[in-house]
């Protein structure tokens, strides 16, 4: 009986951990925003679409399964609990030399937002995800 209780407990915790991992590996929404006084760029990636906003213009394009899978993999490799502590490699935004940018990853109802960084120069941990998001569509 004692062994049955231990085995049941181990299986339960493994199942809970596996379920939690599955939720963290997927995303509800990824948002990239870059703003300054007179300019704003935003890209929002959802399960099936990518929305681009450049000042007043907004566009929507479908998100391919290949790119969605790439984003899911990249999100799974991020430490979302520490994303707000990532160090920006430059500080040009402090003197209006660059737009203030950030990345937010929404999983379920929880939003993980990165520290602010210069547009075009994200922390190294976010470079590939930002590069992929921008490759989905270039602003015209």
Mean pLDDT: 81
Order of helices and strands: HEEEEHEEEH
The gyration radius over C-alpha positions equals 18 Å
Proportion in helices = 25-40%
- The helix/strand class is alpha+beta
Oligomeric state as shown? single chain
Shape: globular
Distance between the termini: 68 Å
The largest sheet is:
7 strands, antiparallel
Number of strands: 7
* Tally of helical segments: 3
Question: In terms of per-residue confidence, which ranges show pLDDT below 50 for 5 or more consecutive residues?
Answer: 17-24
Strand content: 25-35%
Q: What's the layout of helices and strands?
A:
Blueprint lengths: L1 H24 L3 E8 L2 E7 L3 E6 L2 E6 L2 H13 L22 E8 L2 E4 L3 E2 L8 H9 L5
Describe the structure.
The protein is α+β, with helices and mostly antiparallel strands. The chain contains three helices and seven strands. The chain has helices at residues 2-25, 65-77, 127-135; strands at 29-36, 39-45, 49-54, 57-62, 100-107, 110-113, 117-118. Strands 1, 2, 3, 4, 5, 6 and 7 form a seven-stranded antiparallel β-sheet that branches. Helix 2 runs antiparallel to helix 3 (127-135). The longest helix is centred in the first third of the chain and has 24 residues, at 2-25. The radius of gyration is 18 Å and the shape is globular. Residues 17-24 have low confidence and may be disordered.
